[in-house]
Amino acid sequence: MENATYLGTDIAGMMHAARAEARRIMDANKGDMVGDHKAILDRLEAAELITDEEVETLLALYRLGYEAGEKKTDPQRAYFESREIYDRMAAGGKASPVALVVASAAVGSFEISVAPEGSTTVTIARVSYGSSLAGIGAGIGSLLGGPAGGVLGGAIGGLIGGIVDDKKGKK
C-alpha cells in the first residue's frame, strides 16, 4: 500500500508535523524568507513533484513578490513579470501540475484594484504567504494523495496563504 504511514495519521498529527517542520526550516534559515521558500521547493523536488528547473523558476517568482512587498521593486512591474512567467509555464505544456499551482499562488498573492476614476493599483503583502503555503500544502497533499493530492493541497494552501495575507494587512 502506497503512503501507508500517512493513511493512519490524524489531522491534528499532520498539523503538528507541518508546524514542527516549518519551525525547523525557519530555524535553519535564520529569518531568510527566500531560504525558507527554497527549502520548501527542495522538498517538493525531492518528492519528484517538481523539477530542478521548476524550483529555480518558482524561486524567481517568490523573489519578485518578496522584493515588491519589501518595496525594493515596483509591485505593478513585479506583478506583470510574474504573470509573464506563469503564462510561459502554463502555455509551455511541460510544467508539472504542482509547479503550476505554486506559480499561480505566487501570482495570486498580488492584489489588483481599480479606482472609480479608472486608475489601477497593484499591491502585495510585505511578506506574502500565498506561494509558501501553496508549496507546503502541495507537499502535505502529495503524502495523502500523490500528485493529484499535491495539486489540491497546493490550491488549498495558496488560498489559506491569501487569507493570512489579508488578515495581517498590506503595507
Looking at this protein, list some descriptive labels.
globular; single chain; 171 residues; 73% helix; mainly alpha; 2 strands; two-stranded antiparallel ribbon; 7 helices
Q: What can you tell me about this protein's structure?
A:
The chain has 7 helices and 2 strands; from the N terminus they run H-H-H-H-H-H-E-E-H. By secondary structure, it is mostly helical. It has a two-stranded antiparallel ribbon with strand order 1-2. Strand 1 and strand 2 form a beta hairpin. Helix 2 crosses helix 3 and helix 3 packs across helix 7. The chain is globular and about 55 Å long. The model has no long low-confidence stretch (mean pLDDT 81).
Structure, briefly:
This protein is mainly α and 171 residues long.
